[in-house]
């Protein structure tokens, strides 16, 4: 079993052989996060790789305080925002986005994803980090640089909006 604190300390001591261990620890979660924020698997893989490149490039500036998970998610968030801005600037909106096979088969998952994407950005990000990435409320507060109470309040509001939209959808199907 890989111990996160030891891996980070070894990297800080310039033992670069431990980078693979760091990537193994966080790659699946960061990839899943990027997949939520990009239009296809290839873009998510690119975003994940870019996240780790930036994490390594700026590792010297990271002050180890037990918050590396928040740190790497913040990098991933910024990378995904940059990709979104670039795509918007390139105006490639005419292309239909690629949808992963497994996603298209899960209708309820797609409906939930649509409801989440309809939330205001400040709510959507908290819902994704909490439920899709399983971050704690405290980790989300650190990553988003907001108070814990604000995270709690926004999450509560987001869930109310999702519930309200679900009820509205059920009424329309009757």
TrEMBL record:
Pfam families, per the entry: Sigma70_r2, Sigma70_r4_2
Domain RNA polymerase sigma factor 70 region 4 type: 112-162
Domain of life: Bacteria
UniProt keywords, alphabetically: DNA-binding, Sigma factor, Transcription, Transcription regulation
Annotated ranges, domain RNA polymerase sigma-70 region: 22-88
InterPro entries, A to Z: RNA_pol_sigma-70-like, RNA_pol_sigma-70_dom, RNA_pol_sigma70_r2, RNA_pol_sigma70_r4_t2, RNA_pol_sigma_r2, RNA_pol_sigma_r3/r4-like, WH-like_DNA-bd_sf
UniProt similarity note: Belongs to the sigma-70 factor family. ECF subfamily.
Name of the protein in its database record: RNA polymerase sigma factor
Organism encoding this protein: Clostridium lapidicellarium
